[in-house]
Amino acid sequence: MTNKLKTLENKINNSKCQVTKNVLYYIIAPAILLLIGIILLCTVGFNGSTQLVGGSTFNIYVNNEGKITDEDAVQYDLDKDFGKICGLISATLADGNIRIEGFQKSQMDIEGLVAGGDAVKVTFFNVSNDKDEIENKNNLLRDRLISEFGYASSPEAVSEIEYFEGSLTMAWALNLVACIIFAATLALIYMALRTRNGAWLLGLLNVVIDLACVGALLLICRVPVSSAICATMVFTGLISMFNVYAFYAKSETSVVNGKYNNLKASEMADETAKIMAFKKIVLYVIALVVVLITTIMPVAGLREVGIGCLLSLIASFYTSNFILPAIWTLSYKPSKKKNNKSKEANN
């Protein structure tokens, strides 16, 4: 296995790939992505979650203990029959013209009958914005569930369907933007102190491209906009700034050490990209495995964070390998000219 990885690393380092020369072709994919994202934003917008726009929620007992003995009542096992229960709930609510956001394993009490019984928590979007209409509709849906599950003698087995308003306000959105700007500012100040003049400004361009691409992917993949988007965007900003700094630091170190003598700026960028490619692949594969494990966990909020981070990894891996080298070339050219002039003066 080690030999195979070493062979792969050697193939990458010895490849004749010229990223900077073909950067115009590599920009096509992000450009198309952003165009589709803009079109979706102007037409259908983001896929809002109940956390953003509000909705209704309730718990339904699965009768795992067989405490409800009505003729039509069925005893379910929450773990084994979870899919079947969710399917039955979906079919029962289908005529209600609502959109279910998700199902979660839960527990509930039924006074005088069950304490801490297994249940399924359901969250869904309401079609109407009128609270009276929502209340009437929710009561009707609850009656349907009681009838379908055979809980006529114990209607408390289906909790009252409660409406709640969205908790993500404009203030939350502004705080998100402020956090991203603050983190980006600190990172860029650090880069400005450690790199040449102007390099940090072009580094910001790569971060903006990553954030824009992830935003477009969220729109295209219809990922629900919830508080998880905050973690997604912060993760994107951090990993993007890390990629920028790592590439700049490696390039500058190689220039100082004389490894890039007699090379053009574009050739320097290509060499750095190849040198860093293998390590980057290994790091991204490890991160990808961790994120995929997160996405399959049966926790809605954690799963959304995982999906967002997965999109961040895809976008940042592409830009850091195929666009960032060209951005570094732009920031290096002025310094290269100065170095040439100084050499001519010495001669």
Structure description:
The protein is built from 12 helices and 4 strands. The chain is of the alpha+beta class and 347 residues long. The protein folds into 2 domains: 2-48 and 168-338, Multidrug efflux transporter AcrB transmembrane domain (Multidrug efflux transporter AcrB transmembrane fold, Up-down Bundle), CATH 1.20.1640.10; 55-164, Alpha-Beta Plaits (2-Layer Sandwich). It has a 4-stranded antiparallel β-sheet. Strand 2 (99-110) and strand 3 form a beta hairpin. The radius of gyration is 27 Å and the shape is elongated.
CATH architecture of the largest domain: Up-down Bundle
From the 3D structure, determine the CATH topology of the largest domain. Answer: Multidrug efflux transporter AcrB transmembrane fold
Distance between the amino and carboxyl termini: 52 Å
Spatial arrangement of strands, main beta sheet:
2-3-1-4
Rg from alpha-carbon coordinates: 27 Å
What characteristic shape results from the CA principal axes?
elongated
CATH class of the largest domain: Mainly Alpha
By CATH, the superfamily of the largest domain comes out as Multidrug efflux transporter AcrB transmembrane domain
User: What's the oligomerization state?
Assistant: single chain
Percent helix among the residues?
55-70%
Low-confidence stretches: 341-347
Number of separate helices: 12
Largest sheet: 4 strands, antiparallel
Q: What pattern of helices and strands is seen along the backbone?
A: HHHHEHEEHEHHHHHH
Number of domains: 2
Helix/strand-derived category reads alpha+beta
